[in-house]
Amino acid sequence: MRSTAIVFFMLAFVWQASAQKKLNLGIGYFGQTFTHPGLVANLELEKQQSTKVATLGRLDLGTYLHQRNHLGVFVDAHFGLRRYRKSGFFTEQYLGIGTLLSFYEGDGVFAKDENGKLRRISSFANPDLMPSVTLGAGYKFKGEQGPMIYFRPKVYWQLPYNNLALPHLAVQTGVVWNLR
Asked: Residue 108 pLDDT > 70, yes or no?
C-alpha cells in the first residue's frame, strides 16, 4: 500500500505545482498482452509549456480479465510530455508507477501449514508494484474543448513475481475530453 500513497503524493504535487492547467477525462480499452480485454479511465492534468509542448500528470484506474487465470485491477500515475503538431496530430511519452491487484479464478492461493499440508489462504494475490513506460500518438480535433483520440503501447513490470520482475505488454486506446 506504500506505492499507492506515493502515487497520490505525486499527483498532489503536480496539482499544486501547475499554474495554467487543463483537466482532461478519458476512457478507453486496455488490452493486457493485447489479448486480455479490459477498460481504463484516466484523469489528466495538462500544463501547456508552449504552443507545441505540454507536461502531463495522469492517473489511470483500470481492469482487465485474463480468462481462466485472474482479474487484474490497477491504479497508476504517469508523468510525461505531449508534443502537438499544427495538423492536430500529437505524440506523447510517459513514465509511471502504480499498484496491480490480482484476484485469481479457480481455487485461489495456497500455502503449506505447519504440518506440511496445503491449505487455501485466499483468492487474492499480494499487491504488486507496477512501474511502466508508455509511448503514444493521437489526434486532437479542432477547438479548445474538442476531444482527442489516442493509441498508447505500454510496457509495465510486475514486481515481485517469483522474486523477479515480470514484464507485460499492453495497449491502450480511447478518447479524452477537456473538462475546462
From this structure: no
